[in-house]
Write a structure and sequence with these properties.
Helix content is 0%, strand content 41%. The protein is built from no helices and 52 strands.
């Protein structure tokens, strides 16, 4: 029975391979049929009218929809239906729901788990929505996404000084559940990071809760705890055993490395600020400091980002006197050494940094004292350069969310804005919620972005706190890629730096022209087996295959020289093998491939030593 606070519609969906249709009795031996329920859910406060709603469901995965097999199902919500057109290889489902007489419909996006039901949370277009369950109001707690479908809320203390419960929000069905036991140690502002790897599928939704301060003494804590979900989607709990840290840490930063381990950075220790870093291996239940670099500037409350290159960026934070730190520092993907000369960026107490899919990061900074000429927007490029974008005025708050299309979302306290990478500026988000603190945007720093199209924040009300969600996009790693690209404009790709005429130019006849070293990536989407085709319009551009660890293969670079392609270039990846065909000649294999099972993102880069490299009619096809 569905929980009373969630509106839920249920249909049996059949995901099948080999034939289209539902196998009820005797089945052909070469046909595989799996019955999976698809459940469309909505919170009570913004419920879908089931008797009037009409839904279209779009299946995405490592396949290409065609006119013969569009992988779309449509149905009225009042009717049960057999969804026989969804292939077995479906990895995510997009639901688009409309209602007669309603000014806007509902969107939902959900990953498809390996087994069991597929839950899709429907959220209203043009508005945010509070999930139904109320929780205790608290301070110094931490909220973080631990996978695209779950948010963990831990630590802090209530207004009466009590220990609040630990909650998991399920973003598939909209439920918020208190863990039976929760944290074994009271913690103020611990860090929360997800597991990225693990031998057991349960680790896909597990998390590390590290450090923090004791609520009574405010002293830093020297342990970490692990949240493990239960089997078959059960809620799970915090494991009883703790991981001993090498140093007590509070007000530190944390990030998941490409290895799947958690890196703890800086913070406040037992005797002062820390310049050290520490790796927590949640699988082995141990922590280490050996082999790690040291911060040049010790700091508390740093922002720690894993960039598209796999590098670690440490930014922001405060010194022992609470003065904002201006120094940016870069470290290798394993945090063993610094990789770039440190740089200084204008500092203030209200600022946020988010990584960009294309490389580097975006920073938004509100001045401590209003200044008409203050540069509030900065792009930190992949090679460590600092480029100022068009400033944003009236920054009452800085709430910056990673988002699809390399276009982070910014809530200023008055307005919702979206970054426009080809213009180097934020622009008004026209379909945003009402610009009112609380109901229209995050009033506190408790925010999360579980997927590129979803913003989550904690909203305080007189009767308690609520998790509020705003669905502003529907792209993900398996989203469809229009074809062809680079025909009318460059907007389907995103640059890795602020645009300039020397670095980027678009012409209708020649498509996208790239200066030496300038790159443009297809954001959000990743590929297993893929073919890239393009028409060459100037010097042959380098085709980049970047894996999920940030390792790049440049087709046209030293490990895969292409030579001269005057008209066309085709690049194919299958497993570890990468091949290319220039101007229809014989296929050749790159001397170095990519990691066998890695998913890759696709980009173009301007070749060195020439004025410009050009591409038009870009096709990217899942094979």
């Amino acid at each position: 029975m569905a929980p009373p606070f969630v509106t839920r519609r249920l249909w049996p969906a059949t995901l099948l391979a080999g034939v289209a249709g539902l196998c009820l009795g005797a089945c052909q031996r070469d046909t595989q049929v799996i019955d999976r329920p698809v459940r469309l859910n909505s919170p009570k406060g913004c419920a879908v009218a089931g008797e009037r709603g009409y839904a279209s469901l779009y299946a995405h995965g490592d396949f290409e929809p065609t006119a013969e097999a569009p992988y779309v199902e449509s149905l009225y919500l009042r009717d049960a239906a057999e969804l026989a057109g969804l292939p077995l290889a479906t990895k995510s489902l997009l639901a688009d729901v409309s209602q007669p007489g309603a000014p806007a419909g509902f969107f939902g996006l959900a990953r498809v788990p390996e087994a069991g039901p597929v839950d899709v949370l429907l959220l209203p277009k043009l508005a945010s929505c509070a999930l139904t369950t109320r929780i205790e109001r608290r301070t110094s707690s931490t909220m973080a996404a631990i996978d695209p479908g779950h948010v963990l809320l831990v630590g802090g203390k209530t207004e009466l000084g009590q220990v609040p419960r630990t909650y998991v929000a399920n973003l598939g069905d909209g439920t918020i559940t208190a863990l039976p036991i929760g944290l074994g140690t009271r913690r103020l502002a611990p860090t929360v990071t997800r597991f990225d790897k693990g031998p057991d599928p349960v680790f896909a939704s597990a998390a590390v809760v590290a450090g923090g301060a004791d609520p009574d003494s405010n002293g830093p804590l020297r342990t970490a705890e692990v949240y493990l979900p239960g089997a078959d989607g059960a809620i799970g709990d915090i494991a009883a055993s703790k991981i001993e840290l090498n140093e007590a840490r509070a007000e530190h930063g944390a990030v998941v490395l490409a290895s799947g381990e958690t890196l703890l950075v800086g913070g406040r220790g037992a005797t002062g600020l820390l310049a050290t870093m520490e790796i927590v291996d949640p699988i082995a239940s141990r922590a280490r400091t050996t082999g790690l670099a040291i911060l040049e500037v010790a700091r508390k409350n740093p922002t720690v980002l894993r960039l598209a290159s796999g590098e670690i960026l440490v930014a922001g934070g405060e010194d022992a006197a609470g003065v904002p730190v201006s120094t940016l520092e870069w470290f290798a993907p394993d945090a063993s050494r610094s990789t770039k000369r440190r740089r200084d960026l204008v500092a203030s107490k209200r600022r946020m940094f988010v990584p960009l899919d294309t490389g580097g990061a975006l920073a938004v900074i509100s001045p401590d004292n209003p200044q008409a000429t203050f540069k509030s927007v900065w792009v930190i490029t992949a090679d460590g350069a600092l480029e100022s974008g068009i400033p944003v005025q009236d920054l009452e708050e800085v709430r910056l969310f990673p988002a699809a299309d390399a276009s982070p979302l910014l809530f200023t306290g008055r307005r919702w804005l979206r970054w426009q990478p080809w213009f180097g500026a934020f622009q008004q988000l026209l379909d945003a919620p009402e610009p009112v603190l609380g109901s229209g945007g995050p009033a506190t720093a408790s925010i999360a972005a579980p997927d590129p199209g979803l913003a989550i924040w904690l909203e305080d009300r007189p009767d308690g706190s609520y998790v509020r969600a705003y669905r502003h996009g529907s792209r993900g790693p398996y989203a469809s890629v229009p074809r062809p690209l680079l025909v009318k404009d460059e907007m389907s790709l995103a640059p890795d730096r602020l645009p300039s005429r020397d670095a980027y130019r678009f012409e209708l006849e020649r498509g996208l022209l790239l200066g030496p070293g300038a790159s443009a990536f297809l954001p959000d989407v990743t590929f297993a087996k893929v073919t890239i085709e393009l028409r060459v319009t100037a010097t042959t551009p380098i085709v980049i295959l970047r894996d999920d660890r940030g390792v790049e293969l440049e087709v046209g670079g030293p490990f895969c020289p292409v030579g001269v392609a005057k008209e066309t270039l085709t690049v194919s990846r299958a497993g570890a093998r990468v091949t290319f065909v220039a101007d229809g000649r014989e296929a050749r294999e790159c001397t170095r491939g990519v990691a066998e099972n890695a998913r890759v993102s696709i980009g173009l880069r301007g070749a060195s030593g020439v004025e410009s490299s050009g591409a038009r009619n870009l096709f990217v096809r899942r094979d």
